[in-house]
């Protein structure tokens, strides 16, 4: 059976763990060459070895997406060394939940830097390549929090609603260049992102929510991404909302 992404090149940010790691493996299994970006170089190297051991082609690039120069380098180096870029998966993200009243404004800035500006920088860098090729696919990892606002999650909500609005505006802007844009909106996923929260009350709430249901696994979300990027070129899966069966909102 032919691999669905043979000859394609994908960039995955936040690839050192969780959804990013699972996505890199899943896309490589479908034949894509993958450029993996994240801040933790040792994690990237370990992942690269796993992919190579399975016969995949991988390019690890240490990247902090909140630094525009590093985001540009990720895209430019991938294009130079792997010959093209077909898919960008903007996965890097942080969830630092807590109430707005009395909230930690440093956490707010961190979420805006990673969840919003990081997405903007990498997308801005890849669009000229996609336009020359007249093909490309941007996949932005949003969240149920980009659709449903909850007390205690307000700033994270704001960043993910921003990702959704940006993604839809981008889709309309670039569709005539045969560029596709997809939003993936997972519910509760069992990943390290749940450990980022610094607010003790919010952290306890997060832990209780995780214990109350069976959360998604990173591989579940990666499978949704593979589905979106392997559709025929005339099909743009705009949005995939994926929740654990037992998650209410």
Beta-strand content estimate: 15-25%
Query: Which architecture name does CATH use?
Result: 3-Layer(aba) Sandwich
> Termini, distance in Å?
39 Å
The side-by-side strand order for the widest beta sheet comes to 3-2-1-4-5-6-7
> Globular, elongated, flat, extended or rod-shaped: what is the shape?
globular
What's the total helix number? 7
- Quaternary class: single chain
Number of self-contained structural domains: 1
Taking Cα atoms only, what radius of gyration do you get, to the nearest Å?
Answer: 17 Å
Low-confidence stretches: none
Helix content: 40-55%
Structural classification: alpha/beta
Describe the model.
There is one protein chain. With 249 residues, the chain is α/β, with parallel strands linked by helices. The protein has one domain (9-237): Rossmann fold (3-Layer(aba) Sandwich), CATH 3.40.50. It has helices spanning 18-29, 41-53, 68-82, 105-133, 154-174, 200-212, 218-229; strands spanning 9-13, 33-38, 58-62, 87-90, 136-141, 179-186, 239-242. It has a 7-stranded parallel β-sheet with strand order 3-2-1-4-5-6-7, with helices on both faces. The radius of gyration is 17 Å and the shape is globular. 44% of the residues are buried.
């Amino acid at each position: 059976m032919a691999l669905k992404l043979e000859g394609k090149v994908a960039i995955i940010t936040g690839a050192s763990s969780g959804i990013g790691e699972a996505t890199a493996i899943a896309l490589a299994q479908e034949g894509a060459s993958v450029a993996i970006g994240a801040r933790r170089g040792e994690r990237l190297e370990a992942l690269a070895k796993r992919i190579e051991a399975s016969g995949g082609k991988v390019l690890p690039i240490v990247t902090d997406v909140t630094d525009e120069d590093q985001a540009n380098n990720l895209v430019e180096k991938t294009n130079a060394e792997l010959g093209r870029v077909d898919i960008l998966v903007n996965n890097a993200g942080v969830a630092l939940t807590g109430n707005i009243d009395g909230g930690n404004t440093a956490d707010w800035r961190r979420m805006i830097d990673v969840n919003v500006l990081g997405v903007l920088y990498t997308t801005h860098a890849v669009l000229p390549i996609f336009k020359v090729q007249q093909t490309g696919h941007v996949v932005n990892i949003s969240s149920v929090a980009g659709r449903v606002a909850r007390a205690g999650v307000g700033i994270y909500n704001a960043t993910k609603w921003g990702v959704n609005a940006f993604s839809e505006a981008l889709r309309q802007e670039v569709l005539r260049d045969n560029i596709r844009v997809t939003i993936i909106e997972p519910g509760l996923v069992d990943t390290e992102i749940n450990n980022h929260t610094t607010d003790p009350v919010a952290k306890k709430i997060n832990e209780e929510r995780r214990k109350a249901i069976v959360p998604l696994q990173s591989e579940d979300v990666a499978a949704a991404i593979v589905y979106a990027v392997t559709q025929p070129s005339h099909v743009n899966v705009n949005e995939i909302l994926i929740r654990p069966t037992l998650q209410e909102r």
